[in-house]
Amino acid sequence: MKANKSQKKLGKIFIIxxxxxSGKTTxxxxxxxxxxxxxxxxxxxxxxxxxxxxxxKNAREYFFVGKAGFDRLLxxxxxxxxxxxxxYYYGTPKGPLESQLAAGKNVGLCLDLKGARTLKKLYPNNxxxxxxxxxxxxxxxxxxxxxxxxxxxxxxxxxIRLARREILAVSRFDYCVLNQNLTVALGELKEIxxxxxxx
Length: 199
Ligand code: 5GP
Prior knowledge:
This protein has helices at 24-33, 35-38, 67-75, 94-102, 113-122, 137-147, 153-166, 182-197; strands spanning 13-17, 41-43, 46-48, 62-64, 79-85, 88-93, 106-110, 127-133, 175-178. It has one domain (13-197): 3-Layer(aba) Sandwich (Rossmann fold). It is globular and about 50 Å long. The chain is of the alpha/beta class. The structure holds guanosine-5'-monophosphate. Guanosine-5'-monophosphate binds at residues 20, 46, 50, 81, 83, 85, 90-92, 110-112, 114-115.
């Protein structure tokens, strides 16, 4: 039977993971800002129970909700995958991701290790996982400290402790990008993206 011409090829899921402070969000944003890639890739907006950081906007970085709101979404099966990260909940909204993929759009997400593993299992044929490695633990520490300056010291320390463990998961990913220099790392990520969407 001939394939229906109007039936679109499912888009690819482009998952960027790595420890807190590795620069994965900056890299995904950079990828989407690229003129050519921006037309081919949309960013999924997760739901979280953590509070917005300075400069973060609701429905742009995250949908910020309370724990009760998050539970309601879970109960209504509107969350495709979720995680508890340092006491806060984060989840990928199911509807938007599924409709974007069905429309043939490629979707980019920044997820923790658990989320990357779950989505790769759910979409083994069209999920690509990239692990972003920081140049060193010291560099990572200073990025976490500067970003969490408003947060309490114990959250900063927990993020650093967790980052040390997360780095060990690098071998389970399809690709690894070393973020020593943002321009170079972004260039590598663009190459990976273009290769994968044409594969
Ligand atoms: P942050 O608080 O630094 O924005 O995010 C903490 C961690 O949660 C990061 O590793 C981030 O990539 C991850 N994260 C953000 N949204 C989601 C999501 O929807 N699902 C999962 N599994 N992880 C997420």
